[in-house]
Amino acid sequence: MSNASRWTMKPMGMDFGHLPRRSEGVDVVFGKRVDREERQQRSGGERPPTLYCSQYARPNERKRLRKTTRQARPTHACRCSFHVIKNSMCVRLIDTHKPFVLVFLDPGELMSPSTKRKKFALLAIYDIVSRTRHTTPKSRKKFTPTNMQLPETELTAAETDLNVIAYSRSLYMVQNRGKSSFVYRFRRRQPPKQSEKKTAEMSFHNARVALLACGSFNPPTALHFRMMEVAKDYLERECNSTVVEAIMSPVADTFGKKGLAPAQHRFAMLDAATTNIAWLRADSWECSQTKWTRTLAVLQHHEDQVREKYQDSKIRVVLVCGGDVVDSFVRILPDGSNLWSPLDVQKIINDFGVIVIDRTDATPHKTLCTVCGDKPVPSNNVAIVIDEAFPNGISSTRLRSAIQAGKSIRFCTLDPVVDYILANKLYV
Ligand SMILES: Nc1ncnc2c1ncn2[C@@H]1O[C@H](COP(=O)(O)OP(=O)(O)OP(=O)(O)O)[C@@H](O)[C@H]1O
Ligand SMILES: NC(=O)c1ccc[n+]([C@@H]2O[C@H](COP(=O)(O)O)[C@@H](O)[C@H]2O)c1
Fold first, then answer.
1. Do residue 121 and residue 228 come from a single domain?
2. Which ligand is nearest to the CA of 356?
3. pLDDT digit string (tens) for 102-112?
4. Cα–Cα separations (whole angstroms), residue 76 to 33, 70, 92, 162, 331
5. Which residue ranges does the record assign to the Cytidyltransferase-like domain (predicted)?
6. Nearest atom (ligand 2) to Cα of 251
7. Does 23 fall in a domain?
8. Using only C-alpha atoms, what is the Rg of the chain?
9. pTM, rounded to two decimals
10. Nearest CA to ligand 1 atom 21
11. What range defines the domain where residue 124 resides?
12. Ligand 1 mutation pick, 212, 324, 327, max ligand atoms within 8 A of CB
């Protein structure tokens, strides 16, 4: 019997109270003091977006925790998803420091794992799970480390991505036996560190590359086109790469940024401006999706497309972005969740690569050091380029403000964009 088939994923038919359905994710925020009453109030009849673990948040512990994780963050937010496997709850915990830990958990007293971080994470999850009354002594009995396997067949594509990471990390199982609990650690069986290996082999040098810029382009500014030119120039001059094409992909309307003009216009402006530039084009795939697509998925889509188009499985798709986007890699949203999944960021850096165009007030190098933690920033896969010929603080916001004030924006962007905005009376 294959290992995968030993586990069956059951639908969420059990009484999980207020927990969201799987893949929705729950944010576990460490470090916030929320008293019991308030917590109950927050839970109310509705599903709370965030679960607070106040009892593990003493200030001195927070300080130590930050030291351990080497990441000073205002709160320690973890995104978890919940699954039911053989009557036990499986919690997947994702955070910046340890991107993915799979925990099979029975409520019970926990034996302290070796590091504070693990302890905090496990206790936090315990805190959640202990309020769900989901396990019975019978189900606990069934639960043994020997039959443990990820239910690969039942997972969606996105989750299967995560599984790879789970295997490259350690797997923890926590089980209650009488009064004490045990933490089991499993090593992945396949050769580890596949993505690191890929990074070591990968380099911009002599590579065939397609560039991808994702953004609102609301409207496109001179810098949006310029950043593609700067990235292409850098790769061809410094790395002897061949840039086969460069793609500008406007984000879908469902991204929900304030004041976002309809995707049809944002795409049309990019298309009009790039139509006579052989190596540069606008692509409508991302903005024609009904839901917002994470940048990693956009990269993956275009990797498939260009490899097929050029019949070359070695072509790389490299993300081009400004320093502000890199800074946003570690941004935590007001509800405590991560703007970018840390896993996505790791994959973008290691499996694709990024050309960062420096931008006023951005500190991409510092952010990348934070993101990479113990490891050095992979310099063969990430380059921060300063545009010395044309440094400026232009932004779409400034163009929109100028248009609203009735001022000219000519020469702040390409002429076809200006003409399109005027003809369609955008941003007035
Ligand atoms: N002046 C600039 N310098 C460097 N990168 C830039 C500049 N303007 C935009 N970019 C980059 O272009 C990409 C698309 O950006 P986006 O469409 O969000 O433009 P924006 O000017 O930042 O928009 P807004 O002002 O509406 O927030 C991002 O990677 C962004 O960092
Ligand atoms: N998690 C993610 O993949 C993620 C998060 C935030 C923004 N983005 C992308 O960054 C780009 C720029 O966004 P802003 O316009 O908010 O700077 C957009 O294309 C957006 O889709 C991706």
1. no
2. 1
3. 333 332 222 22
4. 13, 12, 16, 20, 12
5. 212-401
6. 19
7. no
8. 24
9. 0.62
10. 395
11. 78-129+166-189
12. 324
Residues 6+ apart with CB under 8 A from 88: 104, 105, 106, 134, 135, 139, 140, 142, 143
Nearest residue to 426 via CA among 403, 408, 398: 403
User: What is the C-alpha separation between 37 and 17, in angstroms, rounded?
Assistant: 17
State the closest ligand 2 atom to the C-alpha of 339, by its place in the atom list counted from 1: 5
Atom of ligand 2 nearest to the CA of 216: 15
Residue 196 lies in a domain: no
Helix (H) or strand (E) holding 250: strand 242-250
**Helix or strand holding residue 391 (H, E):** none
For residue 339, the one-letter residue type is L
The ipTM is: 0.98
The model's pLDDT over 50-84, given as tens digits with 9 standing for 90+, comes to: 333 332 333 444 444 444 333 223 233 344 444 43
For the chain, residues with pLDDT lower than 50 are: 1-40, 42-201
- Angle at the Cα of 350 (from 345 to 356), degrees rounded to 5? 70
Q: How many domains does the chain have?
A: 2
Are residues 376 and 263 part of one domain? yes
